[in-house]
Amino acid sequence: MGKNFDIITSAVALIIKAVIMAGRFSGTVRKRSLKRLAAMDIDEKDKENLFLKDKVYQLETQVSILQKRVRKHQKKPRYTLRERLFILWHIETFGIARRKVTEHLGVSRSTLYRWLHQIDDTSHTRIPANKTPLDIAILIWEITRANIDWGRFRIANQPALLNVFISASTVRNILNRPKPRKPDGFPVASAASAKTEEKIESRSIPAWYPNHVWSVDTTMVLFWGLWPIHIFVVIDHFSRKVMSVTPLEGRNAGWINNALECAIERHGSPKHIISDQGSVFTGDVFAELLDSWNIKPRLGAVGKHGSIAVTERVIKTLKYEWLKRVSFIRGFDHLVTLCEEFEDWYNTWRPHMTLDGFRPDDVYCDRKPKKPQRDSKTVPRNIQQRLFRETRVTGYRLKSVA
């Protein structure tokens, strides 16, 4: 797009130069013709008529320019390119001094000089930082179509991970405009803009490094829409990384201990673990496991909203952004596959609002990508996409991050 923009701007500059040169040539021919007319041996009345016709033509063009200015009803009217060309041609043809342009045509001298300076000025050929290219608009619509539950802030965070700067207000404007068309002429698939926005949860218990504070909880879903099955969720507070999403064959301390121990063996042991005051987490079996790994238990307040808000928010994402997109959970093995894909999507593909748009793995592994500059308006060619077919969610990231 930048190359085409430069070509168009150069073509416009050449047209303006051609009009100025044509006006000068026309003015030179006019002066010579009037001089020859004055020297010719003809009747004085005929000479006077020809001079008056020339003056009338000059005044008619001058009046047409002034009328266009009056019709605009603006203190500082904006002239179209055609009107600018006509004004420049009039000035050069009739030899109007630039210091008299304002009183003759109503155009300020600063405006005239700006028009003339823009011809040779190459800085204005750059694409403005607030100009949204077509390929970015297409990308925004594709991200929205693939993640219909996302709000404009999270949608804006996804291109930032692809080194493309775009603000949340620009996302809103793109989705409020008609769907863009791809360069080959085929329309982009329809998508509804998500109006719900994720609220940033308060971090009531601070975590200062990875594996400092974990929180755990269980939730229940239905397979085949009838039979309940529990899922054990573990999350790291510092990076918001999901350490484990494990379906349980039963909600008892044995299955929960096995799932938590597998997570500890994979990622290392935390210093603190936060849980609610359910009987499973306050029992002796769970306490023995924490003691064996030298982990300090911390309990959330009974009945207090937000006491384990981080885990509750992850469970909400698991249910409403992932499992609800599946028609039926067909059994235990199917749920295990869905939970494994959710863990991969949440940690390595999905931008997180609390992390300022970074992915949990970026923070956990301390490899945060640089924020794009405001003039980063080019969609990179090394974008990797992954379609999670069960939930019909598409993830985007750069291949270098994979």
Provide the fold topology.
Layout lengths: L1 H38 L4 H29 L8 H13 L7 H5 L3 H12 L13 H13 L5 H10 L6 H9 L36 E11 L3 E10 L5 E7 L4 H15 L4 E4 L3 H4 L1 H9 L3 E4 L9 H12 L11 H17 L11 H5 L18 E6 L4 E6 L4
Parallel strand pairs: 1-4, 4-5
Antiparallel strand pairs: 1-2, 2-3, 6-7
Helix pairs in contact: 1-3, 2-3, 6-7, 7-8
Characterize the structure shown.
It is built from 14 helices and 7 strands. It folds into 3 domains: 2-125, no CATH class; 140-200 and 376-402, no CATH class; 213-352, Nucleotidyltransferase, domain 5. By secondary structure, it is of the alpha/beta class.
Give a brief description.
The protein has 402 residues and is α/β, with parallel strands linked by helices.
